[in-house]
Amino acid sequence: MSEEHVPVMVEEVIAGLRIKPDGTYVDGTIGAGGHAEAILKRLGSRGILIGIDWDGDAVRLAETRLQKYSKVLRLCRGNFANLTALLGGVGIERVDGVLFDLGVSWVQLARGERGFSFQLDGPLDMRMDNRQKLNAEMVVNEMASEDLVQLLRRCGEERRAKQIVAAIERRRRTMPIRTTGELAEIVVAAVGRSPHERIHPATRTFLALRIAVNDEIGNLRGGIGAAVAHLKLGGRLCIISFHSLEDRTVKQRFAALARGCVCPPALPQCMCGRKPLLRIVTKKPLVPTLEEVVRNPRSRSAKLRIVERMEEVLDWVAGA
Predict the structure, then answer these.
(1) Where are the domains of the chain?
(2) Sign of the alpha-carbon torsion through 100, 213, 287, 290
(3) pTM of the model
């Protein structure tokens, strides 16, 4: 896990944001700073990039890596779901573009003690913000079996959830499951490992736990609403997702805000007067080129969706 971080779909993101030298932009998941650096290179002295991450390690890494851009970079530790408060803290109301690069970052995967990777043994943590109490060890050892099955199915789309949870239940009756290595071994023992299987058997279990610990889907919904609320007219929101649950959430949320009117189809005319807030720029998600996938295998599941702000924000945007 020592390889250098390679940002995904950089050129597509830059084109999607339509960077202006004097524009104001938000990287809501700055991580190791790859996308942020690409944006900063295109900003002039009057431009601003607000870099956000709720992982303190990521913020510190970005501060070091992007030091030469300090005059136009504002770093904030926080969750993009709280974008309104974070922007208010740096005195900014409206922005020209926002980027969310979802999922776990190289900063987190590369350190076994963070507990995100089944390839590196470490404590079952998975907290993106280590200030929060809930961690993966608590979920694995304390959640009711029936709820854990539903969690693996809903957040990890794991078809073998019952088998995996039954094995977890047998183990935790005698001793707690403390490490990523222990959990990965339990999953492999429960479902086996086929030589034809493309991903590790524990991949979906770890994904589901990470999503649950960090409330990633709830934060994503809130983050989209907040981002749209702070876009200037013509401003754009770009979101890179890496699995179907994320992508489905982005697609549905964009569609709701682009639809505007929520009146029943049976009504002869619109009664709510809601105009579409967004124009969907990418009718289908953009995906990496074959060349990028060969160069950076992590990019193979990436999907980029882009929307553009069309109308003034109404009070229903946060709940649409």
Answers:
(1) 10-107+216-319, 130-213
(2) positive
(3) 0.91
- Assign 308 to helix, strand or coil: strand
Distance CA 47, CA 87 (A): 15
Structure-token pair, residue 309: 């702000």
DSSP state of 79: -
pLDDT at 103: 81
Give the dihedral of Cα atoms 186, 191, 195, 201; nearest 10 deg: -60
Question: C-alpha angle with apex 140: 136 to 144, nearest 5 degrees?
Answer: 130
Tens-place pLDDT, residues 245-263: 999 999 999 998 898 766 6
Residue 33: which of 53, 19, 47, 54 has the closest Cα?
Answer: 53
The pLDDT > 70 percentage for the chain reads 91
φ, ψ for residue 240, nearest 5 deg: -100, 120
Please indicate whether the domains covering 10-107+216-319 and 130-213 agree at the CATH topology level.
Answer: no
d(CA 96, CA 252): 23
Helix (H, G, I), strand (E, B) or coil at 309: strand
Tell me the CATH class for 130-213: mainly alpha
In a 3-state reduction of DSSP, which class is residue 31? coil
The model's pLDDT over 126-163, given as tens digits with 9 standing for 90+, comes to: 999 999 999 999 999 999 999 999 999 999 999 999 99
Taking every pair of Cα atoms in the chain, the longest distance, rounded to a whole number of angstroms, is 64
- Check residue 265 and give its pLDDT: 64
Query: Per CATH, which fold does 10-107+216-319 belong to?
Result: Rossmann fold (3.40.50)
Residue type, 293: V
Q: Which of 286, 150, 301 is nearest to 211 (CA)?
A: 150
Q: Of 73, 86, 87, 3, whose CA–CA distance to 38 is shortest?
A: 73
CB-side neighbour CA atoms (13 Å) of 91: 2
